């Protein structure tokens, strides 16, 4: 950020007694260091809305259609990795498993008998007791029974996989933030049952207009404010490579402290095109109730002048700028001198 401000700080040697616009008399104690105001080029900060969420977030679902028989997690409850969350009815799976188990046993017995028969045919063939065609038929039968056994075992693996899908487990340790299923509901493939967020890192998911997103990159800092007044200078951790064709916005993720609650709406100030503006130290602002003003040095002495303030420019975000400053929208012009 290029800064053009040049501040001239002096100390008034003579303490002239002036009168403010409020009728206040400026005593010698009130007159100290001053600064000449000059315009500078600062990027306009445009508000962008977003939502806080956990960095680890998973929507838990199933790949089978079945009735929900139990839900072992409530909204807000902590869960361990691998903990059972939802169980589905598996009556039909149990019937299929019994049928497939029987088919596997039959296939294994047939394959074992085919192996013994092929071994006998090999022995008799080498003794010239049977024709080659008989031996070949025995080996063909062995191949067929091996294929039948492989198909039966594949069916068994499929049933076992479906049995595993009937028990929904937590993919990682975290907390349940959303529950959309109850006992007796019919779960369908892809239907979200629970939403789990990991305990720890938080991030704000922002939908930034495409023209503003080009000014952001990993490591850029944006100021994020929540509805309850929490603020944080959040570093950008990820910027999507392309824009959403429907909204013409780019997904930007910024890192937040771990104690920020998820699901909260936030507003981030994203830098736009630079504009000429005036910024003064926050300590120079005089507050009278909801009114804000600054003491302007005039020929007759310091005079309190009411001004309209804009955004706060924290010094921590731009170390070379010194202490926290505030933008002046109206009430001051470049070249005037104010009391610090």
Would you give an account of this structure?
This protein has helices at residues 91-126, 132-165, 210-213; strands at residues 9-11, 18-19, 25-26, 33-36, 40-54, 57-60, 66-71, 78-79, 84-88, 167-169, 174-179, 186-187, 194-198, 202-209, 221-226, 231-239, 249-256, 265-281, 286-288, 291-298, 301-306, 308-313, 325-330, 337-339. The model is unreliable at 1-29 and 316-321 (pLDDT under 50). The protein folds into 4 domains: 9-48 and 273-339, conserved putative lor/sdh protein from methanococcus maripaludis s2 fold (Beta Barrel); 57-87 and 166-197, RNA polymerase II/Efflux pump adaptor protein, barrel-sandwich hybrid domain (OB fold (Dihydrolipoamide Acetyltransferase, E2P), Beta Barrel); 91-164, Orthogonal Bundle (Helix Hairpins); 200-271, Efflux pump adaptor protein, beta barrel domain (Elongation Factor Tu (Ef-tu), domain 3, Beta Barrel). Helix 1 (91-126) packs antiparallel against helix 2 (132-165). The chain is α+β, with helices and mostly antiparallel strands. The strands form 6 sheets. Strands 5-14-17-16-15-18 form a 6-stranded antiparallel β-barrel. A 4-stranded antiparallel beta sheet has the order 6-13-11-8, with no helix packed on it. Strands 10-9-7-12 form a 4-stranded antiparallel beta sheet.
């Amino acid at each position: 950020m290029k800064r053009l401000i040049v501040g001239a700080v002096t100390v008034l040697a003579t303490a002239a007694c002036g009168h403010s616009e409020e009728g206040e008399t400026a005593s010698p104690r009130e007159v100290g260091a001053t600064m000449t105001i000059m315009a500078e080029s600062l990027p306009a900060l445009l508000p962008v809305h977003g939502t806080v969420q956990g960095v680890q977030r998973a929507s838990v679902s199933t790949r089978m259609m079945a009735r929900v028989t139990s839900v072992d997690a409530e909204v807000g409850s902590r869960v361990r990795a691998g903990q059972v969350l939802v169980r589905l009815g598996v009556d039909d799976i149990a019937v299929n498993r019994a049928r497939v188990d029987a088919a596997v046993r039959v296939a294994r017995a047939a394959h074992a008998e085919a192996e013994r028969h092929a071994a006998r045919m090999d022995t008799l063939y080498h003794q010239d007791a049977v024709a080659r065609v008989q031996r070949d038929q025995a080996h063909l039968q062995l191949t067929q029974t091996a294929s039948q056994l492989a198909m039966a075992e594949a069916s068994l693996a499929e049933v076992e996989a479906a049995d595993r899908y009937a028990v929904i487990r937590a993919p990682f340790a975290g907390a349940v933030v959303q529950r959309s299923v109850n006992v007796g509901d019919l779960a369908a493939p892809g239907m979200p049952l629970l939403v789990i967020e990991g305990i720890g890192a938080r991030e704000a998911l922002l939908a930034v207009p495409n023209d503003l997103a080009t000014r952001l990159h990993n490591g850029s800092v944006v100021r994020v404010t929540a509805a309850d007044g929490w603020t944080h200078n959040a570093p950008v951790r990820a910027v999507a490579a392309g824009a959403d064709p429907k909204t013409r916005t780019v997904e930007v993720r910024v890192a937040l402290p771990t104690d920020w609650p998820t699901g909260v709406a936030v507003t981030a100030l994203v830098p736009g095109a630079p504009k000429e503006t005036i910024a003064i130290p926050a300590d120079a602002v005089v507050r009278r109730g909801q009114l804000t003003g600054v003491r302007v040095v005039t020929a007759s002495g310091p005079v309190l002048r009411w001004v309209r303030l804009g955004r706060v420019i924290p010094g921590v975000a731009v170390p070379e700028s010194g202490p926290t400053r505030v933008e002046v929208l109206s009430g001051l012009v470049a070249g005037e001198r104010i009391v610090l």
